[in-house]
Amino acid sequence: MKILTITRPDDWHLHVRNNAILRTVLPHTTQQFARAIIMPNLKPPITTVDQALSYREEILQAIPNGENFTPLMTLYLTAATPLAEIKKAAESAHVYAFKLYPAGATTNSDAGVTDIKAIYPLLAELEKQDIPLLIHGEVTREDCDIFDREREFIETSLTQITHNFPNLRIVLEHLTTLEAVKFVEAAGKNMAATITPQHLLYNRNSILTGGIHPHYYCLPILKRERHRQALVAAATSGNPKFFLGTDSAPHLTSLKETSCGCAGCYSAHAAIELYAEAFERAKALDKLEGFASFYGADFYRLPRNTNTITLKRASWTIPLSYGADETRITPLKAGEELTWKLQ
User: What values do phi and psi take at 40, rounded to 5?
Assistant: First the structure.
């Protein structure tokens, strides 16, 4: 196959930051995706509808001329979130979900939740208002090995959430383990999951072999090869519970290449090409369109896009960085070749 044309995809998990970084990274997303679920973990976090609408306007102003792109806003769920704010979000035409970060789990998650059971009244309201809950599914206990945090969260928290709130639509974001795949497969119709390109393409050797490679460090962290294989099998299965969410997370190169590098992989520069590479390796390019373009829209009850994008088989080298000095970002696979190119 030399040409691959699919319905224009959507990104169901995206970080675009704000200010100069937003203006640097957003064009990469808008050239390939029609819509994206925008993460709310800014400083300060986006916790109210009014803040989300203001952030949405900043994003709209940064869309390049001629591009048709819709940001789908989310709110950061905290223990202090008022029930009235959830009702207001349900009435908004631009807020599509709430995001649950366990406190300390990832970038800018300090305002996150420390006690899941304490927010059960909020989860009940989300269920009542039929607003999806997006979950960063990791525990943050110091006694839990970082490679076991997702499995522990499923066993100690997510199992109880799905039992107590069976009608709550939940997206378990950026799956990384075989156990998470099995949980989502066995759960009811209201449970779905996103999978990133890095977790499809790489295992934990990519971070540590031949030295420490900070641009492959993300949270949840890359896992063993058997887990990567389970994710590939899920993504290419045609099961509509699994769909595209890049979790593209831009950090300045200077903040990645330091003694305490930030967690996050920047993949928006070549997101659909990276997924195409993963699906081609699995001999499942025919499954890419459903995963990238259909299943997420169906879960969020949005119409599927009607226009298309085209990928061409053509080797090209990913730049070493994007942005000027003050916004320099090193992308995933910097300086390496890809075999598919968005036209």
Answer: -100, 10
Q: Please say if the pLDDT value at position 212 is more than 80.
A: yes
Amino acid sitting at position 85: E
130 catalytic residue (yes or no): no
Region 296-317: mean pLDDT is: 98
Sheet holding 308-317, edge to edge: 3-7, 308-317, 337-342
The single residue of 11, 115, 247, 325 carrying the catalytic annotation is 247
CATH number of the domain that residue 149 is part of: 3.20.20.140
Would you give the distance in Å from CA 343 to the centre of its chain? 24
State the pLDDT confidence band at 107, using cuts at 50, 70 and 90.
confident
Which domain does 216 fall in, by range? 3-342
DSSP readout, 182-197? HHHHHS-TTEEEEE-H
Q: In the predicted model, what is the mean pLDDT of the chain? A: 97
Neighbours of 278 (CB within 10 A): 25
CA–CA gap between residue 189 and residue 204 (Å, rounded)? 31
CA 216 to chain centre: 15
**Residues linked to residue 242 through DSSP beta bridges, in sequence order:** 193
The residues, ordered by sequence, that sit 6+ positions from 208 with a Cβ below 8 Å of its Cβ are none
Query: What does the pLDDT look like over 19-76, one tens digit per residue?
Result: 999 999 999 999 999 999 999 999 999 999 999 999 999 999 999 999 999 999 999 9
Question: Tokens for 249?
Answer: 């997370």
Distance of CA 12 to the CA centre of its chain: 6
What sign does the dihedral 281-285-288-290 (CA atoms) show? negative
Rounded Cα distance, 131 and 165, in Å = 12
Query: How many domains does the chain divide into?
Result: 1
Q: Distance between CA atoms of 189 and 323, rounded to whole angstroms? A: 42
Residue 220, preceding peptide bond in cis (omega within 30° of 0): yes
**CB distance 73 to 94 below 8 Å:** yes
